[in-house]
Amino acid sequence: MTGLKRVTTLGAWLNLYFFWEKKWFFIAMIIGALMLHMPLPQGLSPEGLIILTMSVVSVILFVTEPVPLPTVALLIIIGQVMLMGHDSSEVAKSLVTDSVLFIAGSLMLAVAVVKQKLDKRLAWLIVRMTGTKTWRVCFGITVVSGLLASFVGEHTVAAMMLPVGITLISLTSDDPKKVRNLAAVVLFSIAYGASVAGIGTPSGGARNAIMIGYWKEFFFDPTNPETFKFIVSYVDWMIHAYPMFLIQVPFVTFILFWTFRPEYRDLSRAVVKLRKTIEEEGPMKAADWMSILIFFLVLLGWVLISGEIGMGTVAIAGAAMFLVAGLVRWEDINSGVNWGVILLYAAAISLGLQMKETGAALWVAEAFLETLAPLGASEGFGLWAAVSVLTTGVTNTMSNGAAVAVLGPIVLKMSVVANESPIILGYITAISSSFAYLTVVGTPACTIVYASGYLKTTDFLKVGWKMAIASTIIMLVAAKVYWPLLGV
Amino acid sequence: MVEWKGAPGLSDEEITARKKHFRILVCIDGSDECYQSLKYAARLGGGVDADIVLLFVRPVDQGLRSGGLQVRVARENMLKWGLELPGIKYLKKGFDILGELGMMDGKDWSEHVVHTDVDGDPLGDNKTEYVNAKGKMVVLKLKVAPDIATGILEQWELGPYDLILFGTSGRWKGPMRSFWDPAVAQKVAIHAPCSVLVARDLDVGHGHLICTDGSDKAMKMARWDGEIASHCNCPVSLISVALDVEAEDEAKANVDKTKKVLVDMGIEVKETIVKVGNPVNEIIEAGPNYSLIVVAESRKTGLRRFFMESIAYKVIGNAHNSVMIVR
């Protein structure tokens, strides 16, 4: 067989389409192989290089998604055993932390809460409070979505409120083209209302729990009372972040109405029909009251005892209560939670801790600060702004929990090198990770409202940059003016 | 066109019937362009009693991007409120358009609703089939797939289809951006095994501009399109582009040769054009005077089409009006 014919035969055998679809996987692997074989950079240990390589490869795979994302978690686990030589049982143990339990428990709670059909009660509450003016209805949706999302996570609220929003839109007009802008303001009121609230409490999002876990792992020393401040409680977090959420709420409605001018200034027709639909539900039932009671018990647990037993324990206790009370079936929880996400967060957190232990986080932090120095952003306010912009950029390309898991160790080490407060930079990272307003994949709430089919990807860009600027300014002002008052 | 070998669940008779019928797949996304392409499909298919399948692809609900809560939880909640899945409204509108165009005339239509379970999405694929006594089929299909392009390409496997139509509002991305994230229309045009019509401001009255280089492939394409054009009474024009002045006579001969083939089929050729210059630029420049540009594509695989940047691929990507690639 001639050489040319051999090549042709090989070409016919290879499924080029497969390689094309997975191109970013192969590019990531090649970059990884090159990094592992490059000369060891000064100041970086061989183990640090391996972990840094795994982090770079993971980030490429997180952003480009050539393989199902839980595969990245599996690769991280394999890498820790095969490349780092860790014992597989030790790696397995490192995967389960309170943050991971919290993420799992919160997701189970999310499914349980959505299944309680409290959405119609919420809709009734909103239209009763706001009347029929479009801007008032949207403001009401933002407030209610925000208040709920600050405790139960934005995905829960988006799933509950989406039918309310779509019902209002479709009752106004059957033709989606006649309600393009109305759909945008209503649906973004849900998504952005939930997103800005996700920073309010630790249970507002996985990213918050991840940062609380990092603070403890990186800085807490039981023998040193000075490090006790790095155990950030539920209430501590709320005191720092909740006011920022409240300040952002009116900005959400203002920016949405400034960007999309809704075709209908009054939603009387839709509100009247919606009220009628809701009234058919009748009075609250015993199961509804039980759901609300369990929800408040979980909330109390987070506020009062999560410091002792962990936020994760409270979350899974809440899920267990819903199951024991028969308010949700295990099958619903099993099919409603994407368990791959939990594995993914577990592996990403484990990798983050390895970044710290091998010195890779410190090395990247120093390199990053060196780059920022000529721009005057290697310390103080400049560094805060740089970290916020970096986090906002990263979180718009991957899930915000993954962004914090990847960036957290680097930012916390940067704070040490730059002699800044790890608490301030940690908050800035966790809070900025919620500024993923520009893309559909940025935040869970955006992904869920996009599934309605009413929004275009360009809508997110059109309004998202305004939201990102407003949120960044509010956060930096809080960091400069408000947090110092709290003694940070 | 790649030979279709049948699909699971179809009897031998059904497979044979589908192979005999001219089948058109119209991708619906709610845009004006998609309904323009549907009207054109109705016109093309009217004369041959073609099967017309309206397809809306819904990306599979998955929870990774939604923070771990499956989108299906939100979806099920919406259904409990009596809200329809996205796409149903668009398909209904398409069906109404076919009705207005007289495609559903007659009382002999039977209706079948079919649901297919799909791994990873409890709501699965759903379709409503309308079949008349002659075996002509109009199908509304709501399909679930990992992404829209994959859904359209998978639908061909269940087909087969002679022609895929979809609307697009603009020209395509450059090679670098395409490498990162090819647009849906671009991906389908590259990988589809059958002819593809990319509709941009598709205005039905101005006829087809068939590009020919005199090759066997071009002759075959001209015959195929000539037949299609005759179904909808669309005038046919021919264009051939010479790379330089020396090749102008050859280009003229190519046009004449193609014209003869069409005339022998009883198809009137309205106009013949011979140009000198860059074929892609000349074709694109002449294109807007016609409803659509028709170009032939080789049997290269999808990736080779992209890397080798064939004339057909460049024309479909850069033209200002509609383009049909004949395979």
Topology summary:
The complex is a heterodimer of chains A (488) and B (327).
Chain A: H1 3-13, H2 16-21, H3 23-37, H4 46-64, H5 69-82, H6 88-95, H7 98-114, H8 119-130, H9 134-152, H10 154-172, H11 180-197, H12 206-219, H13 234-259, H14 268-279, H15 286-304, H16 306-309, H17 311-324, H18 330-336, H19 339-357, H20 360-372, H21 380-395, H22 400-417, H23 422-432, H24 444-450, H25 457-485
Chain B: H1 12-20, E1 23-27, H2 32-46, E2 51-59, H3 71-80, H4 88-100, E3 110-118, E4 121-131, E5 137-145, H5 148-158, E6 163-167, H6 175-180, H7 184-191, E7 195-199, E8 208-211, H8 216-231, E9 236-242, H9 248-264, E10 269-276, H10 279-286, E11 292-296, H11 302-308, H12 311-318, E12 322-326
Helix pairs in contact in B: 5-7, 10-12
**Poorly predicted residue ranges of chain B:** 301-309
Q: In total, how many domains does the architecture of chain B comprise?
A: 2
The number of helical segments of chain A is 25
CATH H level, superfamily name of the largest domain in chain B: HUPs
| Straight-line N-to-C gap of chain A | 75 Å
Run of helices and strands of chain B: HEHEHHEEEHEHHEEHEHEHEHHE
Average the pLDDT over all residues of chain A and give the rounded result: 87
Q: Radius of gyration of chain A, rounded?
A: 24 Å
Overall morphology of chain A: globular
Report the sheet with the most strands of chain A, covering strand number, pairing sense and barrel closure.
Answer: none
Total helical elements of chain B: 12
Largest sheet of chain B: 12 strands, mixed
Strand content of chain A: under 5%
Return the CATH topology of the largest domain in chain B.
Rossmann fold
Q: What can you tell me about this protein's structure?
A:
The complex is a heterodimer of chains A (488) and B (327). Helices cover 75% and strands 0% of the residues of chain A. By secondary structure, chain A is mostly helical. Chain A folds into 2 domains: 19-95; 98-485, no CATH class. In chain A, α7 (98-114) packs antiparallel against α12 and α7 crosses α18 (330-336). The radius of gyration of chain A is 24 Å and the shape is globular. Chain B folds into 2 domains: 12-167, Rossmann fold (3-Layer(aba) Sandwich); 204-326, HUPs (Rossmann fold, 3-Layer(aba) Sandwich), CATH 3.40.50. Chain B is 39% helix and 25% strand. A 12-stranded mixed beta sheet of chain B has the order 3-4-5-2-1-6-7-12-11-8-9-10, sandwiched between helices. Residues 301-309 of chain B have low confidence and may be disordered. Chain A binds chain B through residues 16-17, 20, 68-70, 103, 107, 110-111, 114-115, 117, 119, 153-156, 158-160, 162-163, 166-167, 170, 174, 176, 205-206, 335-338, 340-342, 344, 399, 401, 440-441, 443-444, 447-448, 451-454, and chain B through 30, 58, 61-75, 77-78, 80-81, 83, 86-87, 89, 122, 191, 301-304.
